[in-house]
Amino acid sequence: MSTETPSGTVVCSGEGRNPVLPEVFSIPDPEAHVVGDGRLFVYGSLDGPEDTYCSGVYRPVSTRDLRTWTVHDVGFRAEQAPWFGEPLVEAVPYPQKRTPFMIESARRMGPGMLIRSLWAMAFTRSRERFLYAPDAVAHGGRHYLFFCMTDGSEGVAVADVPEGPFRDPVRLPCTGIDPAVFADRDGAVYLYWGQWSAHGVRLDGDLRSFDQASVSRALLTEEEHGFHEGSSVRRIGDTYYFVFADMHRGKPTSLGYATSSSPLGPFRYRGIIVDSDGCDPEAWNNHGSIEEVDGRHYVFYHRSSRGTRYHRRLCIEPIEILPDGSIPEVPMTSQGVGDPFRPGEALPARSACVVGGRARIDVDEAGLEVLELPRTGDRAVFRYLAQGEFAGLTLDGSGAGTVRVLVDGRTIGIAAPGDDGVLRLATPFLVDGEGELVIEAVSSRSLRVRTLTLNG
C-alpha cells in the first residue's frame, strides 16, 4: 500500500527518535547543512512509488532543535529541467572489469534479485522522469541545488531561500548520479559525483559551470576505497571527510569515509560510520552525510522499510570525532538523537531499528506503520531503554501469537494475549545496562504490532 505525502508545508513534532519523520514522508539520501540563521536543512530524494527509488520532486526539511521538523513544500520538480532525455554531454564509463566488490555484491544478491534490480533500473529510466539524490549549498546570499535525473544528466538550480522554490535550472557538463557540493573556507566550491568511481572539480564562480579539463577522476574507487555511490564531503578542522556508500561488507548498506588534507585528495580509507544492514529483509543501499549541530557531530542516513529496498526513512545518530580524526562506528538505534525510552512511555513499532527473519516495518490498511512478525522466530530490536525499573510490557496490534521479550540479552518472559487479544508481559524487569529490548515471535499468525507500552 502506498501513501501520498500531504501538500504544502507540514510541521512534525517529535522527540528526536528514529525514524525522524512520519510514515508519509520517505526522504532518503540526506545531505544535512546548517544554514546562516542556525537552521539545519536536509536535502534528499523523495521515495514515492512502490517498486523503485525516488520520485519526480524534492521536498527539503528543516529543524532548529532536531526535535521539531518542517517538511517544506515541493522545492523542485523534474519537469523544470527542459533537457531531460536529450543526448548526454559527457560519458563517465562504468568499470571495464568486474571488481571483487562487484562480484561479491552479485553473489549476495543472487541471480534472481540481480536480474530484478537491473530490470527495475532500466524500466525506471525508460518510463519516468525522476530526480535522484541531490545536494545544496549556500553561497553569495543565494542557495544552489545540485540534482541528477534518471537519464544520467546533472544540473543546478538556484533559490533565494534554502527551502526554495529552486528555479532557472542549468545543465552541467557531467553525467552520473549523486552530486555532492562542498564550500571551503576560502570561498572555493567543489562538485563531486559518480558511481563505482568518484570524480570532483572546482566550480566556476557562478556555481553553474566548470572546466571539464580540470575534473579530477577516480578520487575514490570501488577497488581501493569500497566506493559505490553517494558522495558527500565535509571539512572538520584541517581534514576533508569524504562520506560514501561503502561496499566493504558486500553490499552498500554501510556509510564509509575517507580523509585527505585537500578537497581533491588523495583520500585514504578510514572505516565505516554506520551500517543500515538489518533494518529490513531487503535492505540494500545507504546514502548520507555528517554535520555539526550546536557543537555535536551527527551522521544522517536512511533505512528502508516494507520488505523492499524503497520507502527509505531519514534517521540520525550522534557520532564522535576522535583526536586522530577517526570516527568510531555507531549502531542503528531507535533512540536517535532523543532520550532513551522511559517507563510509562509508548514506543511506536516503527522505531524498531533492526529486524530478523521476515520481520519488517510495513503499513496497514489505514496507511499507518506497523511491525510485522509473520513467522515464528521473527524478531525486532529497539535501542535503548532508560535505566530503571519497568513493570512489564504491553504490545497492541492485530493477528495472533506470542512473543519472547529479552532485555540486554536476557529473557524476561513471554508476552501472551489476554481475552482482548492484547499481548501483555506482567513480569517486572530492571534495566541496568544499555537497555536493548528484543521481541521475538514464539508463534505467529499474521502478527502485527503497532505500539509497545513500557509499563511503569
TrEMBL record:
Matching CDD domains: GH43_XylA-like
Chain ranges passing through the membrane: none
Descriptive protein name: Family 43 glycosylhydrolase
Record has Hydrolase as a keyword: yes
Family statement drawn from the similarity comment of this UniProt entry: Belongs to the glycosyl hydrolase 43 family.
Top-rank taxon, per record: Bacteria
Listed InterPro entries: Glyco_hydro_43 (IPR006710), Glyco_hydro_beta-prop_sf (IPR023296), Glycosyl_Hydrlase_43_Enz (IPR052176)
Keywords: Carbohydrate metabolism, Glycosidase, Hydrolase, Polysaccharide degradation, Xylan degradation
Species name: Microbacterium fluvii
One protein family per Pfam: Glyco_hydro_43
